[in-house]
Sequence to fold (249 residues):
Amino acid sequence: MSGCCTIPPREAPAIPLWINGRPMLAMPLRFHEIREAATQRLIRRVPMVDTELAATALDAAQHATGLPLTSVSDFLGELVQALEELEGHFAGLSAVESQTHLETGKADVAHAIDFVQQLVKAIDHPEGDANVVAVDRDQSVLALAGAGLPVSAALKLVLPIVLQGRGVTLVPDAHAPSCALALAELCGQCGLPAGLLNVVYVDDAVVLSLILDHGVRQVRLFGPSAWTHRWQTAAMNWPDTITCELVTA
Fold:
């Protein structure tokens, strides 16, 4: 069970945002509460930030430096190794936030590792001097996740974008922010340049403001069918310059 509060209880830690390659603690007017189902103990507060702060993540993505082409393989290899070493941790996060069993979480991590390994095989590695992929500053990407975001889905939302040299801002559901944050931190540790992957927590009104007023050109969706259908229906009223893409597990 979860809810919202305006005055954060001191005993529950607030989860940080991830902007421009580092965690950012925010003190907004409203926090989303995550409670333990059995005891109702408050275990985490999620800062629901406003458009102004969330837009700094889009700005970081638009001004980020892409991975050198000759570093992509190293980054993906480091990511596979890290996921293997942290299998138990990510399996637990995935199981909790997807409301499944631990064995299902382990299977999801295995699926995530397989997805990254397939990317490694698909990449053509150039020889010679490293070339940096230029980020298209007119192609800001917003990745939206509905309730229950397993780590494999988070990777599918963001990795194809960052490997193209474009920055992406991931907006997980406020009920399940931990996989997104942990993945952003892990990618940074594995060599992803700052700003290419950002994580913020916002409500639907802020999402719409970011899409319509802050240069977003692509929206990627992963979530329950009713949730994705709602966003796809809304996208019919967006300018033609904005594309909306559904990502499947």
